[in-house]
């Protein structure tokens, strides 16, 4: 089994039988809860050397929303669309995600997500069969991309939760 296939299957498993659009629609309020419950200091703390901070993860989700929105439109509107991967670590570092306010990341995310979910909701079954070619994962339909995006949200929300708990545990010691 390839790494790309494993990645896709792991994201699908996180979504399970949930409606992916419902998962996508809930993420902004979950992020609101995170930034309301935890201080910017906690969210900017690095829980493990070499890993992102919770704030950087939120920034990554905002970047991902922009990328997924572009890919959605590209595959929907163009024949034989080629979809490129990103150097996500560079995006986080070069854009100084940890220097931004967590609320700014969430507001950017919320705005992009509202725009993109509106497009997802209007797609027909036939639209969801449209396929693009990802440079790392090969052919992907919009239906697969939708489930992957929902799984991506869930994966990173779980990661934020784990990292915040690790930060809080370190502070208690």
Description of the molecule:
- The chain is mainly alpha-helical and about 170 residues long.
- It has a single domain (about 35-170), classed as Up-down Bundle (Four Helix Bundle (Hemerythrin (Met), subunit A)).
- About 70% of the residues lie in helices and about 5% in strands.
- The chain contains eight helices and three strands; from the N terminus they run ααααβαααββα.
- The protein has helices at about 5-15, 20-35, 40-45, 55-75, 90-95, 100-120, 125-130, 140-170; strands at about 80-85, 130-135, 140.
- It has a three-stranded mixed β-sheet.
- A hairpin with a 3-residue loop joins strand 2 (about 130-135) and strand 3.
- Helix 1 crosses helix 8.
- The model has no long low-confidence stretch (mean pLDDT about 95).
SSE arrangement:
Elements (H helix, E strand, L loop, with lengths): L2 H13 L4 H18 L2 H5 L9 H24 L4 E2 L4 H7 L7 H21 L2 H4 L2 E4 L3 E4 H31 L1
Helix pairs in contact: 1-8, 2-6, 2-8, 4-6, 4-8
Which blocks of ≥5 consecutive residues have pLDDT under 50?
A: none
Order of helices and strands: HHHHEHHHEEH
The helical percent reads over 70%
Number of strands: 3
The general outline is globular
Q: If classified by CATH, what would the architecture be?
A: Up-down Bundle
User: Total number of helical segments?
Assistant: 8
In the CATH hierarchy, what is the superfamily?
dinb family like domain
Termini distance? 41 Å
Spatial extent as radius of gyration: 16 Å
Main sheet?
A: 3 strands, mixed
